[in-house]
Protein: Sec-independent protein translocase protein TatA
Amino acid sequence: MRLGPMELIIILVIVLLIFGVGKLPQVGEALGKGLKSFQKASSGEDEEEEKKEEVKAEKPAEAPKAEVIEAKPEAEAPKPESSEKA
Structure:
């Protein structure tokens, strides 16, 4: 069973009605990534990428260096004057 041009046009119209014109590029990108991932998995390239990721995961990550901030002494606050005068 082959899909002819008329069937493809009908499918495209249905997809446009469901997702709308704005979401169509996102749907196409997701389909493309899915097909690419499937092709890599079927050809065995996916296993090589997993091995590379495992090697990266085994290396310990360096801790970010903290900045040293010096504390500045605060100026003395003036003492409140008492309202009682003798």
About this structure: The CA atoms of residues 53 and 59 lie 10 Å apart. The mean pLDDT is 76. The chain is about 60% helix and 0% strand. The first helix runs from residue 5 to 43.
